[in-house]
Design goal:
Elements: H1 14-29, E1 40-45, H2 51-62, E2 66-70, H3 84-91, E3 97-102, H4 107-114, E4 119-124, H5 130-144, E5 151-155, H6 162-171, E6 177-181, H7 190-199, E7 203-206, E8 218-221, H8 232-238, E9 257-259, H9 280-298
Parallel strand pairs: 1-2, 1-3, 3-4, 5-6, 5-8, 6-7, 8-9
Helix pairs in contact: 1-5, 1-9, 2-9, 3-4, 5-6, 5-9
This protein binds phosphoric acid mono(formamide)ester.
Length: 302
């Protein structure tokens, strides 16, 4: 994995996912390993972020490295007309690793082809968010004790939600049964269903939410991605399609856990937070260990 970019979750094999999970477990037990001394990581965020940017930066700092970059592209020379091509050419000479989030699908792949250092895709439009997926896999493994033969409900915005696209591709390596629960306007795109069909994996598409909760090992809630809608009326129509409330978790499996990549808006009521089945805040914490593992592995330090 040394010097290998992580742009799509399919850039890593199943064995590489498992290696990252094992390293993440090591970092969870021993988080402050000063293995990044003298290394510089650039975080280039052309879209807002709380968890991804800060957990990547925290991961670097915990390992003794340094961070450069921007959280708002308006503070860079992009405002003067600099192209992404030039930005990447320059920044890749200033650092050992680039973490990039960009609204355009394919921007991270473009960056990885230009840069002379490895690139991590921290989210490119509605396409992929592979480091989120690795922390989701870690969270699923920690809560279920396995990644094999699980039933996952993916709920909400399955059209624009990049985290569900990456997670579907990764979990398809583990004989998962998927249930896609969304309004018609936000269904899982055809290419992902085609991907599952080619692998002979089972999935269903439904609008009923409450009636399907009891079968789930994981309920993966998602936010309706307001920023990706061209029609604000369609956003208003779909934004509250599914709202999980604490009472609805009665009758779900004892081992079931609720995950959400966050941020949440309305889709999980705050009364769920006290339920032991709510795992989304720990899931976000797991992001630090998993991102330590990804960085250390990419730089050939583990
Ligand atoms: N899960 C996630 O990508 O969150 P942020 O947008 O806050 O980084």
């Amino acid at each position: 994995m040394k010097n290998k970019s992580l742009v799509s979750i399919t850039d890593y094999s199943k064995e590489e996912y498992l290696r990252i999970l094992s390293l993440a477990d090591e970092f969870e037990n021993y988080p402050n390993q000063s293995i990044l001394k003298g290394k510089v990581v650039a975080t280039l965020f052309f879209e807002p972020s709380t968890r991804t940017r800060l957990s990547f930066e925290s991961a670097v700092l915990k390992m003794g490295g340094r961070v450069i970059g921007f959280s708002d592209s308006n503070s860079s020379s992009i405002t003067k007309g600099e192209t992404l091509y030039d930005t990447i050419k320059i920044v890749s000479n200033y650092c050992d690793l680039i973490v990039i989030r960009h609204p355009l699908e394919g921007a991270a792949r473009f960056a990885s082809e230009l840069a002379n250092v490895p690139v991590i895709n921290a989210g490119d439009g509605a396409n992929q968010h592979p480091s989120q997926t690795l922390l989701d896999l870690y969270s699923i493994f920690k809560t279920q004790g396995t990644l094999d033969n699980l039933t996952i409900l993916m709920v909400g915005d399955l059209k624009y939600g990049r985290t569900v696209h990456s997670l579907l591709m990764a979990m398809s390596q583990f004989q998962t049964t998927f249930h896609f629960i969304s309004p018609d306007e936000l269904k899982m795109p055809e290419e992902y269903k085609y991907y599952l069909n080619c692998l002979g994996l089972k999935y269903s598409e439904q609008k009923d939410f409450a009636g399907n909760l009891a079968i789930a090992d994981i309920i993966y809630m998602t936010r309706v991605q307001k920023e990706r809608f061209s029609d604000p009326i369609e956003y208003e129509r779909t934004k509250n399609a599914y709202i999980l409330k604490n009472k609805m978790l009665d009758g779900t499996k004892d081992t079931m856990r609720v995950l959400h990549p966050l941020p949440r808006v309305n889709e999980i009521d705050q009364d769920v937070d006290v339920n032991p089945k709510a795992y989304y805040f720990t899931q976000a914490l797991n992001g630090i260990y998993v991102r330590q593992a990804i960085i250390a592995s990419m730089l050939g330090l583990k």
